[in-house]
Please model this.
Amino acid sequence: MEKKNRTMSKETKYVAKIADESGFIHYSDEEHDVWRQLYARQEVNLPGRACKEYIYGIEALNLPKDRIPQLSEIDSVLMETTGWKTEPVPALISFGRFFELLASKRFPVATFIRSKEDFDYLQEPDIFHEIFGHCPLLTNPSFANFSHVYGQLGLAATKQERVFLARLYWFTVEFGLMQGKGEELNIYGGGILSSPGETLYAMDNIPERKEFDLVTVMRTPYRIDIMQPIYYVIENISFLDEVVKMDIMAAVKKAQELGLFAPKFEPKAKAS
Model:
């Protein structure tokens, strides 16, 4: 769904790789080199910035640093830790398909990798974003359960309700920050963790940061093609268990009634 940005965009310049008869996806040396460079850069950027649960997860996955991993390598760890697995998909899938996958504990992974021209920021969700950004936290029970329940809610929601649910996903799973009392600010959102540019930007004093409030989050507009002007901060990863216990769909209806806040960004320029 909002996978930088999976369903709201209409076009993508990338084409997903198709596995061969044995399930193996072949990548070129150049594509492996993009993974290597992205990994090396984030390996420097993330210590002291990524949340500890993410660090635990990336250690558990034991991701290769010099090549794009095969999905089966990821699945073996996810199945053992939280019962999840990956699902290869094109760059863009429908809302319904996205929610269907999450509801069945399958995480969609677009099987292409960005070009060097899109190294710092990518609108489409590539395999580095999906695997490096999200899969480490899918080893965490709280994060995995939140993603599962979110999928179930989205599957049952109307088209109009899904737009508001999208903002919840965007400001948590994609662009969420975390800060416990007396602790340093850190990152758990995969859209930040997989972006060398946004990793540094999100922790700077430029963007606005607010305490998480469910209805407020759902009323906050965003753009997918810019650094985020605002982030919402939860106290710890276990807070996602509390969100699951909230009446999320009642919050959707409340947000619909109140309407959106004024955006903190300029409208996207129309193509001439």
